[in-house]
What we know:
- By secondary structure, the chain is an alpha/beta fold.
- Helix content is about 30%, strand content about 25%.
- The chain is built from 10 helices and 16 strands.
- The chain has a 7-stranded mixed beta sheet, sandwiched between helices. It has a 7-stranded mixed beta sheet with strand order 12-11-10-13-14-16-15, sandwiched between helices. A two-stranded antiparallel sheet has the order 8-9.
- A hairpin with a 7-residue loop joins β6 (about 135-140) and β7 (about 145-150).
- α2 (about 25-35) packs across α3 and α9 (about 285-295) runs parallel beside α10.
- The longest helix is centred in the N-terminal third of the chain and has 13 residues, at about 50-60.
Amino acid sequence: MNDLTDLFQSVAGRVKPPVCVALGPPWPVANLVEAVAAPGTVCYQMDLHQADRVRDCLAEVGSGAEVVAKPDLWDLGPTFETVVFPAAAYADRELKIDMVEQAYHVLKPGGVLVSLSGYERDNQFAKWHKKVFGKCGQTPASKAGMAFWSVRGEDQKRRRHEVAFHAKLPDGPPMEVISRPGTFSYGRFDNGSRAMVEVADVRPGESVLDLGCGNGAVGCLLGGKVGPAGSVTFVDSNLRAVALAELNAAANNTPNPKFVTATRLEGLARRSFDVIVANPPYYAKSEITQLFVQGSRELLRPGGRYYIVTKLPTAVVPMIFQTFGDCSVIENRGYSVVMAGVGGPPPLAGGMIPRVV
């Protein structure tokens, strides 16, 4: 945490307001805002939950910096003299590249991008900066990490970083799904999601909730099962994810889609869904899984079915029992699909597990 602040001091003389701090963990962001000490500083996040945590940390240090959540950094427009990108060491490589690209388009001509890397010897950021900005300066390798900076030139065309992949249920049409960095399962259909849709009993005319939808691949596939009389609601706290779900639902003719950006399932009506599917992130704290489980029961109609896929059934099953009173588990593709329902666990339709190709 303090290392990034120390690293920033080595390049602080290159920083001019107004400043945008792009992404980064909550406390390092708050510490950087304190170090920047410039009026009009804006903190960009693409996830509402993360944005709320940044606001809490800023409040603790007494900063009034604005926190803005958008699907893309370049949605903020070319209004900054400096963008500071505190790149967490564990962040996706593709997301880092995407932020360097998008930072160019929120800088005024002559503005500076400063990327802070926690790696002692980082041999990637200079390449990414040069590809987008043409030139790059850097600090020497140190235990605190390395800092890189580049100056924005003339306007250039935006380059969108995205990957398309295909998924198909045997009894449904093939679907193409667009994915972008910073969202779950970039560039591929997640195996856990695949295991879950193979097990889920979804019937024509039903209302499905894709909880933590990511790019919307699961909801789009299940939309093929509910047919034109059914509906699919996509919900996620990540604004880029919801924007992708909307794009993919339109491209794949998902029936009666709805899109909700929420952190605690707000905006969802009680007893409005026949089926809820959830694939919570395993790297996060269990509070997200608890939210996905505990918040779902009140959303299900009588006879409704709930499915959650996990690699940690011993942690998830007690939550299911506490909330639903009973459950059953099917092992598929190395994952556990835990099933529960209002009034008891649902049977599988026909006793068969369809496969996704």
